Amino acid sequence: MKWRVRRFSTQDRAESGTWWKTAYSKLLLRKADKIPQELHHIVQEAFLTLQKHDCFFQDLVRIKGKDFLTPVSRILIGNPGCTYKYLNTRLFTVPWPMEDYEIKYCHPELFTACKALIKLNDYLNIEAVQALQEQNLSGTKETEDTAVTDREQDFSNFIKGSLLEDQSSLYTPRNDCTSLKYKTSYNLTLLNYMDPLQMPYLKQEPYFGMGNMAVSWHHDENLVERSTVAVYSYSCEGSESDKVNEQDVEGRDPADWHIGLKVAWDIKTPGLAIPLHPGDCYFMLDDLNMTHQHCVLAGFQPRFSSTHRMAECSTGTVEYIFGQCEVALHNLQVDSDSAALSLKSLEVQVVKEVEEIHNKVEFEWLRQFWFQGKRYRKCTDWWFEPMAKLEEFWKKMEFMTSLVLGEVGKGERTIEQRNKIISCLLPLLTERQELRKEWTARCQCQLAMSLPEEQKPKCHPFWKDDDPSMPLPYDLEEVIANLQTLLE
Q1: Reported pTM
Q2: Which of 61, 151, 182, 326 lies most in the core, judged by the most C-beta atoms within 10 Å?
Q3: Within 10 Å of residue 443's Cβ, how many Cβ atoms?
């Protein structure tokens, strides 16, 4: 197939083979006709099912202090309790079916769709392992990997069933990323949908004249180091008349979707634009996502994609944040007779750790989740139980902050001891106050108000100063001022 390139200076086409092998050897395209037809069928049906149930959403993301609505609509599907963060936005997985997890979907068709996507995930895992081994990029001397052994199995058996055998290993520390398992055992997929004809404006690719961009140049964020990214692309079929009266954009057919690739922070090395036909897959192997940037060039027809990733989840799972809450609440004790609350320790390091976790729970989890409105109810209620439990833990931490403030105000400690606690506490309360203001403003911004009702951000937790269930006010300005007075 012809992979089209434009460079700033004119070069002989024969020369392009040299820089191709040097600059883009870790990009692998798997054409649709090399992928089992049955897999195409169930995956494309899954895309259409999710669209039918209104499960794709534009994200209200934050870039350099400003809010933007993404032109692409998305949904994150993957391991239960896993999250993925990009552009200061934490997405929460709609869980795909896994053993030992009870997952209730809002409609049986959504179960079927998520099941199809985990089958695609397993297939792409096997293909990625094979590709890494063929390019000697495995980073390990192991030659008998179970995924490779299974590669030759008849697909009719494969499609009936296997989930990845060791799903628990998907939550991996960064320093284990050199083995095949940790480069390809995808723990989630970010699904994208875009209809270019519904977009009032698409940005032009600025460096190589590649045409309209659906997604600008970027690296994928928050991935296990050197892990492979696998993408399944499905653009809806269009008629030949779509291509009439349209001119090629410097050698690429503008009717076709393309993946664009360039060396990071380099516009002298020629860029690459690869056409993507319905059902094509591509793999960004090894460190390609780190050394290169990619963009998505829009065609004429609506397009779905499923981008399978090994997300770096060491601090992005329910298990992790619950563990952090356990650490914080260890400093809280309850009197068995009176149920009165008190703190076990007022050591500065203990207070600091608890308040840092307090901020993390509120701003990295609770407010991130509710900022996305009621969107997750479209698919499953899985997240609402852990988020309710997380809110209970957070509320206890509000009481813990109140207890620290009470102890500081008693005057039972030396001025030096008191000032050390205040100096530790002030920056964290100031950060809390500023972030509450920011999140409140974001929830009320014009873009947020323009979203459909079920997608409108909810400013939560939020309470009024006279709420008897809360030990501290929502607005901490007065609390902070009093601490500053004591410190003086």
Answers
A1: 0.87
A2: 182
A3: 20
